[in-house]
Amino acid sequence: MLTGREAVARTGIDAAALKPAECDVSRAGELPVDRVTIDYEGREHLPDAETLDRLAAEAELYVTTPVRADGFDPLGDDSLTARIPDAARRVLVAGHGAYLTDEESSRAVAPRLGAARRAAPDAWVGTEGVERVALATGGTQFELLSRSTDRDVRALRAAGFDGEVAVYAPTVLTDDEDAVLDAVGAYVSRRRPVARALPDGSGGEGDGPATDSEASGRAREVLSAAARDFALVGSPETVRERVADLREAGVDHVVGYPARGIGEFLS
């Protein structure tokens, strides 16, 4: 029986993404990966400077900073950037609406990403929803895993893009289908192609079909297939094969988010 650390090491994943609202990020140094990214879930969950300093000393640390959010806006209030240690790198993203005010969400992304990249030229750039803008800024392109990732990355390489590409994916190290759906069913149901394919097209919201282990029939079939397209799921060996395919396509870094909690990567 593999320990969590042994299982993760076997997958070939080289980075882990942690959500500070969900887990104790101070444990990041225990993870069996070279890099750790700290997701942004609102300024109230942003780790303090002391914690970030300690993490940067223990691992190669990346901190997600939404360029439209007060505190990280390079064209306005950027006061929170002082909390990020010099040893850490930033992940520049447009920012999820769930963590932005209406005013912040209305701010233009392109000039802010450009200004932030000039201030942090070694930053990764999140591509979700702003693919062309992200590519124009250069730097490591940080993408969400999708069913077209391999094809898209091959196309980038064929077109001459020689920068780095990192891919983010919720990760579940089990073949237990109920456990997979409990961990990532809701996540994959929100991806547009999946929402359209679900029986009522709701993506599992409102009165739509269940998206967890209670899903049945056509909804369960769609969600199970989507979990393999938009997440890394299965035995460590199965995930390792998928990671190898991504690297063969031209992906440099694979960032796994422990969808069942940090304990799965540490136990």
Describe the structure.
The protein has 267 residues and is of the alpha/beta class. It folds into two domains: 201 residues, Aldolase class I (TIM Barrel), CATH 3.20.20.70; 57 residues, no CATH class. Helix 1 runs parallel beside helix 10 and helix 7 packs across helix 9. The protein is globular. The termini are close together.
Helix fraction bin: 25-40%
Number of domains: 2
Mean pLDDT, to the nearest integer, reads 95
Large-scale geometry = globular
SSE string:
HEEHEEHHEHEHEHHHEHEH
Question: What is the CATH fold-level name of the largest domain?
Answer: TIM Barrel
- Percent strand equals 15-25%
* Uncertain spans: none
CATH homologous superfamily identity of the largest domain: Aldolase class I
How far apart, in Å, are the first and last alpha carbons?
11 Å
- Cα-atom Rg, whole angstroms? 18 Å
At CATH level 2, the architecture of the largest domain is Alpha-Beta Barrel
CATH class of the largest domain: Alpha Beta
Widest β-sheet, arrangement of strands: 1-2-3-4-5-6-7-9
Give the beta-strand count: 9
What descriptive keywords fit this protein?
267 residues; alpha/beta; TIM Barrel; eight-stranded parallel beta barrel; 9 strands; 16% strand
Topology overview:
Blueprint: H1 4-11, E1 15-18, E2 35-38, H2 49-58, E3 60-66, E4 89-93, H3 102-105, H4 110-119, E5 124-126, H5 131-137, E6 140-144, H6 149-158, E7 165-172, H7 177-189, H8 192-197, H9 217-230, E8 232-233, H10 236-249, E9 253-258, H11 263-266
Parallel strand pairs: 1-2, 1-9, 2-3, 3-4, 4-5, 5-6, 6-7, 7-8, 7-9
Helix pairs in contact: 1-10, 7-9
